[in-house]
Each structure stands twice: as C-alpha cells, then as structure tokens.
From TrEMBL:
Organism: Pomacea canaliculata (Golden apple snail)
Predominant place of localization: secreted
Record keywords, A-Z: Coiled coil, Secreted, Signal
Name by which UniProt lists this protein: C1q domain-containing protein
SMART domains cross-referenced by the UniProt entry: C1Q (SM00110)
Gene3D superfamilies listed in its UniProt record: 2.60.120.40
GO cellular component terms listed in the entry, alphabetical order: extracellular region
Domain C1q per the UniProt entry, residue ranges: 59-199
InterPro entries tied to this protein: C1q_dom (IPR001073), Cerebellin_Synaptic_Org (IPR050822), Tumour_necrosis_fac-like_dom (IPR008983)
Cell compartments where the protein resides: Secreted
Ranges in coiled-coil conformation: 22-56
Top-rank taxon: Eukaryota
Keyword Coiled coil on entry: yes
Amino acid sequence: MQASPRLRRSDDETLRSLQDVVQDQARVIQSLQASLTALESKVQSQQSAINSLQVRENHESNAVAFSVRFQSDDESNGVLLGQHQTLTFNDVITNIGNGYDSATGIFTAPVAGVYIFFLRVMSTNSHGSIDVVIDKQGAPLDLIFAEGQTDPYDQGSGQVTTHLAVGEKVWARQQSGEAVRGRWYTSFTGLLLNPKTVSHSFSSLSSLPCHSTT
C-alpha cells in the first residue's frame, strides 16, 4: 500500500524542517565556537598583562639604591675622622628601599642579592693622605686611597660587587689618615644589581696596606 501524495509531502516538509533546524544549530555552534575562541584569546591577553604587571611590581618592590655624601665641607680641614671611624654621610641624595641609615652611616640590605658599591674620597691640603675601606659585616672588601701629601686634593675611587643576605651590612670606614673633603668631593653609592636568594662567595681583603700620613 503506497502512502498518499499528501502524506509524502508532509514527510518531505518535516524532513526539510529538521534539516533547517540542524543547519541553524550548526551555525549557532560555529558562532559559539568563534566567540569562545575570541574569549580565550582575550583571557590570554589579559593574563599576559597581569603577568607583566606582576613582574614589574616585583621588580619595583625589589629596587634598592642609595647615594650619599657629607652636607658640609672645609677646604683646609675637610671632615675630620677618628681611628677606624665609620663615615656617617648625612646628605642623603637617594635612598630607595630605605637601606641606608644616615645616623650610623651603615647600609643594611633590605633585599638579598648581588650589590655593587662605589666609594670616592678626596684628601685635604692640611691632613695628608687618607685610606678608606668598604666593610661588609666588619670584613674589608675594598681600599680607596687619596694621596694628600705631595698632591693635595687628590681623589681616589673604587668599586666592589658582593652578595648580601637580608640584614647584612656594608659601610665605609677610615683605615688611616685624619680627614676627607666633604660635600660632593667624597661620596658613597650602592645599588642592587640582581635579587637572588642563593649566596655567592666573594673573598674579602685579608690584609690592607696602611699608607703613612707623616
């Protein structure tokens, strides 16, 4: 028994309707997939921006630097120093990280890492030569000499790189001589080069020469 033409038309219409529904759903799925891809790309872009901000924030929070000198100066006498006295630079130009204490002249590392220190000294015309050392935890790292006997107002400078753990201290100390010039003639600077948690070994000076000032 054959189906009537009306019934066949009804089945064909139903089939076409179902096919249209399937095609519509396929287009919806494609649109959703495109939206999902765009959303994933946007999320990745935002995550990259967040990571970049975090790296920048971490870098800025680890920034440590100081630059100091003496506020006053006397052309003849300079700044008088006692035996093995710490140079208490009281004119703080920069102190990022607040590691330098102008009351004591001591820098205390707020962040562990590799630091570089620069020291420049000038002798006076009436107190002869001057030796100043950069000390780390009481051990000398470098010696700076300014010859003030035959060459008044001589200037010496030095730099040293070392690893510091959090809380370790560095300062400039008189080794021999009586005075240095103040103001911009004698200055001390330190900078964190690379934050690290693993300590590196840097040998200190086992013995220091002492230049005669007589």
